[in-house]
Amino acid sequence: MRTGDAFHPKGAGIIETSGARAPTCDAPSTGKEAEPLKTTTPQTTAGEKRSGTIQSVSIAARFLMVLANAESELALGEVARRTGTGGSTAHRYLQSLVKEGLARQDPASGLYDLGSAALSIGIGALKRVDAVEIAAQHMKSLTHQHALSGGVAIWTDRGPTLVRWYRSAYFSINPLALGDILPIDNTACGLVFQAFLPKATIDAARRQQPAHFRGKPPTKAVLDEVRERCWSELTSHLLSNVTGQAAPVFDAQHEIACAVTTVSDLGQLKSPDDRHALLREASLINQATGGRAFGSDSP
């Protein structure tokens, strides 16, 4: 069913509320321009209070973030501009980072980039990222704040499987539970996995699910829409007047690691804030996992 149609409580399909089109799944994240740095050295003479942080470390971290977020190697002047410092200050900090291996300078061009030590730190951080646990923390909080139940699903050889599930205090009609395997074709979660997993993987799981359980395979247009928006919503697919929503969670290699999903009674969705809560939460989860950046605006 084509997304973008008006919302019909009794219909089934990927639903789009009226308004502006959401950013695409692969839209690059944007940030505010860095504020100018204060480069004065904190005083540590007797009688004066020491700061709770070391300012030079905070400034060095700003330089590292500029290098990490840059689209390519940067010239000294560009680093100074993005950090809001003078050229001499930028040079001192960059040379200190180079000395410690946190940055490197191309001997031919003079351009700066992240160094091997920074890459090692990043790899170490990635090894500690558990997408399911990060998603679970966010989903537990979400269900406590909104009239919906939700959780985290992973892909198994039989299809999407709920490995975390939290019941809402406001929404008691709940057809799902921990450990449930979801239909591939007629759940929002199933459509999300289909949009980002290889067809052979999907077909193998489809053969494991009975035809009456899995549903009718979606069209290419439906999956393209899910893939573009990183979002799926189906209504009255499991229970009448109940809406299911789902969004992907990517790892640092931009591959789907799991999906976050919710079910809610349409009568409890009192405001757009309730309706689009999952999409905003999914955006925050993907920031934490290092996954693809996608918009947190309403789908």
Which descriptors apply to this entry?
7 strands; alpha+beta; 5-stranded antiparallel beta sheet; disordered N terminus; 299 residues; 11 helices; elongated; two-stranded antiparallel sheet
Structural account:
There is one protein chain. The protein has 299 residues and is α+β, with helices and mostly antiparallel strands. It contains 11 helices and 7 strands. It has a 5-stranded antiparallel sheet with strand order 4-3-7-6-5, with helices on both faces. Strands 1-2 form a two-stranded antiparallel sheet. The longest helix is centred in the first third of the chain and has 15 residues, at 55-69. It is elongated, with a radius of gyration of 24 Å. Residues 1-23 and 27-50 have low confidence and may be disordered.
Low-confidence stretches: 1-23, 27-50
**Helix content range of the residues, please?**
25-40%
The outline comes out as elongated
Summarize model confidence as the mean pLDDT: 79
Report the total helices: 11
**First-to-last CA distance:** 16 Å
Tell me which oligomeric state these chains represent: single chain
Strand order of the largest sheet: 4-3-7-6-5
What is the alpha-carbon Rg in Å?
24 Å
Number of DSSP strand runs: 7
Strand content: 15-25%
Largest sheet: 5 strands, antiparallel
SS content category: alpha+beta
Query: What are the secondary-structure elements, in order, as H or E?
Result: HHHEEHHEEHHHHEEEHH
